[in-house]
Input
Amino acid sequence: MRVTRRELLLLAAGVTAFPAMPLVARAQAYPARSVRVILGFAAGGGTDLVARMIGEWLSRQLGQQFVIENRTGTGGNLATEAVMKSPPDGYSLLFTGTNSTICASLYKKLPFDFQRDFVPVAFIMRFPNLMLVPSSLPVTSVKEFIDYAKNHPGKLSFASSGHGTSLHLCGEMFKRLAKIEMLHVPYRGSAAAYPDLISGRLHVMFDNVTSGLEMARSGNVRALGVTSAVRWEPVPDIAAIAETVPGFEAMVWYGIVAPKGTPPDVVLTLNRAINAALGDPVLLARVAEIGGLPIRMTPQQLGKFIDDDMETWRKVVEFAGASVE
Output
């Protein structure tokens, strides 16, 4: 599903009328104690960075600690299962995104059904991935990388933050469309892969723009392209991969869901709070720095978005021929 920036902004503009007073009143009843926000990726990566930004804001505004808990493994599925098994009381939330909509079709067997076992709470932001290579690799464009790969058959490897992540699927899709061979090397989060990428032991990694942009700016790695269909407005100097590889597109999102059965008033309190966060100028400035596009949605809109994104990634998984037991 290709969504233009104009469409995203129109969607965001349509869900901005969340009054502040009910937020304060609701906080007296919920939350009455600390809230766990579980995510399936390691500390230090882009997912963790955004989760902590939102957690800090919610802690200040709702008067209880929103504690970020990292549970890595199987493309985020361990975290998803842990939240699914938690009481549906609003005190265990899942910080998730594209990994969940990918895993639904990538994994042959899962202990949960993401659409059945969770209720949507709030959308947070959307963004592309970055194609990153070591600064020592003698390529400065996507075309040069493809030529390099074809001149070194069977020698290149690409890293990801684990099976079933958008970083994994981006690499698989790139292989297919560019007609090159690369070995997939999964890590427990993208942060864990950077030492090997920087040293040149790995040749490429697709990472969220939220963390990849910072690494590229440091000079340790080089950004060759973004995975959006066209150049991404926050980083217009980086080419879209599709300029060289027609048809290549992969967008990523972050949001929060809760176990099925979570009280609707708790879901509404969280939705209002997160949408209020996405209107905070300080937080918006931080999101802009990491290349994200924040979007306000109702729980119902997020549910529809999840359904559509699952279908989008199902087609990508089939195209890439990827599968995980």
About this structure: The first helix runs from residue 5 to 13. The beta strands are 35-39, 66-70, 92-97, 118-134, 157-160, 183-186, 204-208, 221-226, 251-259, 293-294.
